[in-house]
Structures are given as C-alpha cells and as structure tokens.
C-alpha cells in the first residue's frame, strides 16, 4: 500500500513525529522510494536542529542519532532530498529562558537547569530539557557557520519577511517589565 502511494507522487514531505517509533517508519518510506524509483524530492521529518551538529544528552540524543542515520541512508541511496534545519524556535525557548515546562512570558522567577541530567523529569519534559541543555550549555545553535556549500540562509530565501534579531525579540518580551519599572 505504501509503495502504491509513493508511485503516485513526485515529492514526499515526511511529517512524522520525533519519537523513535515514528522516525523508524521513515526507513520504510525510504525503501518504498528506492523501489518506486520516481521520487524527485524527499524531505525527511527532522524539522529542528541539525542532527549531525548537535550534542544533546538523553533522551534527545537517541532521537538525533536516529535522524542522522536516516540522513545517511538517504545519501547512501542517492535519493534527491532537502534537509530542513529550522534550529530552535526563538519564540519557544527564548521567552521561557530555557524552562521548557512553563508558559511565557516569565517575569518573576528563573530556574537554573542543573547538570543537564533530565532523566528524572516526565518524558516530554525530559526531551525538552535535554535539548535546552544542548542549546544553552553546549551552544549547539551557534557553533557552526551556514555557508553556500552546505545550506541556504532563510533570510536569503524569503527577503520580504521582516526578521528580527534575538536582541529585538528579548526587548519585546522585556518591555512590560520596563514599563512597570518606570
């Protein structure tokens, strides 16, 4: 049934989730793409950080390792592909100041993530905290350059979008506090 569906399209955009079971299903899609032989572009489900340039702790480490293996499988089979790296979304992590479990904006207290051991938290929170550890402690969002040989910067693809800097975004979050202080 999957093979029949793949034979009817030119492009596949996988939107499977990030849990290991759903990521494993992408290998079936890749095998169907290989068998069908008609796909012009495959976009695997990995919307987020580059799985080949992160160093998260568990439980996110396993997910990123699987994403990297899927990438390698796609390359090994010479499947035309596009990897979308949106990194972290500034409107999720920045307003929370790394506290994935709370709703922003935060004005009263800030918690400090300990040594990065997120294993004692509920599963979804553990995953969020392990990514936060990777971002804030290991700095994986700022330890590489985007160059023309490896990627395209979004601001070049969509110049009509009015982008703001992280500083401008933080200022927008802090403006209610500044107004109250004055």
What does this molecule look like?
This protein is mainly alpha-helical. It has a single domain, classed as Rossmann fold (3-Layer(aba) Sandwich). Helix content is 45%, strand content 3%. The chain has seven helices and two strands; from the N terminus they run H-E-H-E-H-H-H-H-H. The protein has helices at residues 2-6, 20-36, 60-76, 90-96, 123-137, 154-157, 166-181, and strands at residues 11-13, 41-43. It has a two-stranded parallel sheet. Strand 1, helix 2 (20-36) and strand 2 (41-43) form a beta-alpha-beta unit. The radius of gyration is 19 Å and the shape is elongated. Residues 116-121 have low confidence and may be disordered.
Please sum up the structure shown.
This is Isoflavone reductase-like protein. 45% of the residues lie in helices and 3% in strands. It has helices at 2-6, 20-36, 60-76, 90-96, 123-137, 154-157, 166-181, and strands at residues 11-13, 41-43.
Q: If you consult CATH, what is the topology? A: Rossmann fold
Q: Quick one: CATH class? A: Alpha Beta
Major sheet: 2 strands, parallel
Helix percent reads: 40-55%
- Overall outline: elongated
**Radius of gyration of CA atoms, rounded to a whole number:** 19 Å
Structural class: mainly alpha
Please tell me the CATH architecture by its name.
3-Layer(aba) Sandwich
Number of strands: 2
Question: Which strands sit side by side, in order, in the main sheet?
Answer: 1-2
Distance between the termini: 65 Å
Bin the strand percentage: under 5%
Return the average pLDDT rounded to an integer: 76
**Unreliably modeled segments:** 116-121
